[in-house]
Amino acid sequence: TQGQPVSLTTACASGATSVQLGTEAIRRGDTDAALCIGTDGEICEEMVVRFNLLSALSTQNDDPQGASKPFSKGRDGFVMAEGSATLVLESYEAARARGAKILGVVRSAGERADTFHRTRSKPDGSAIIDCITRAMADAGMTPGDIDYINAHGTSTPENDKMEYLALSAALGDELANTPISSNKSMIGHTLSAAGAIEAAISLLTIQAGVMPPTINCNEQDPNILMDVVPNESRVQSVNTVMSNSFGFGGQNVCLIFSAEPA
Asked: Which of 99, 165, 171, 235 has the smallest set of CB atoms within 10 Å of its CB?
C-alpha cells in the first residue's frame, strides 16, 4: 500500500466521509489521487435484531418489494441491504494529464456532527442544516444552482422528516423547484456503503441526464412538500447534484458534484 490508508466509520455516512477525506487530501496537496471505498455486508440475525429493537426496520413483510418507500405517507422503516462502491478521485490536472474519462467533479463536501443522541437527529436539525449550507458555501453555490438532490431518504419516519426540515431551511423557496429522489427505495439501505454508492449514482445521473425514481411513492407524505421523483425516472439535463448522507450519532455529510467544465 502506498500513501496514507485510512479506515473509518461514521455510521451510514461512512462512504460519503471517505469521499470527503479524499477530496481534502487532494486539495491539501498530500496526494494526486485517492481511492474512496464504501462497503458493508452485515445482514445477519444479530444486526436485524439490533435495528429492529430501534424500530428502524420496516415491518411490512407481506410486501417486501414495496416496503422501502422514502417520503411516502405509509413509510415505517428501512430495508437492510449490502453493497459496495469505489470511486477514484484525482486532481483535475492529474486526470487530464493521463487522459482519464472524467465522470464529474467533486465541488464540495460539508460535514457536521450534532452530538445529540446515539440514533436520533437533533430536533431543530441545526447540524444537518449547517452541513448542507457549508457544502454550498464551499462550492460557491446558491440553492438555485442545485439541479437534483440524491437524498439520504431511508424510509424511516424520523429521518425523512428531518431531511425535509433541513433542506427547507438550507434551500428555502428553491427546494420546491429541485427534484429529489432516494435510490434506497430500489436497493435498500446499504448502511456504511450508502454514501459511496449514492456518490456513484449522482455522477451517473449527471452523465446520463436521467434522475432515478423513488419507487413505491404512491402517496407522498403531505407534510413533506418536495418535488419527489415518483416511481418512474425523469429525463432531464443535470449539471449539479447534491448527495446527502446522515448517520447514527449525528454524523452528517453533504457532497456536491458537477459535470466536467466544458
From this structure: 99
CATH architecture of 14-258: 3-Layer(aba) Sandwich (3.40)
CA 24 – CA 22 distance, rounded (Å) = 5
Strands 240-247 and 148-150: parallel
Helix, coil or strand: residue 158: helix
Mean pLDDT of the chain: 96
Length of the chain: 262
Catalytic position from the list 36, 44, 131, 189: 189
- Residue 182: its pLDDT value, please? 99
Nearest Cα residue to 153 out of 124, 120, 122, 180:
180
pLDDT band at 1 (very low <50, low <70, confident <90, very high): low
Dihedral sign computed on CA atoms, order 83, 251, 150, 109: negative
**Spatial separation of the C-alpha atoms in residues 104 and 216, rounded to whole Å:** 29
Cα–Cα distance for residue pair 105/240, rounded to 1 Å = 9
189 is catalytic: yes
Average pLDDT over residues 218-242: 98
Give 249's pLDDT tier (boundaries 50, 70, 90).
confident
pTM for this predicted structure:
0.96
Instruction: Find the catalytic residue in 36, 131, 152, 254.
Output: 152
Around Cβ 174, how many Cβ atoms within 10 Å?
A: 14
Contacts of 53 (CB under 8 A, 6+ apart): none
- The single residue of 12, 36, 131, 254 carrying the catalytic annotation is 12
Three-class HEC string of 190-223: CHHHHHHHHHHHHHHHHHHCEECCECCCCCECCC
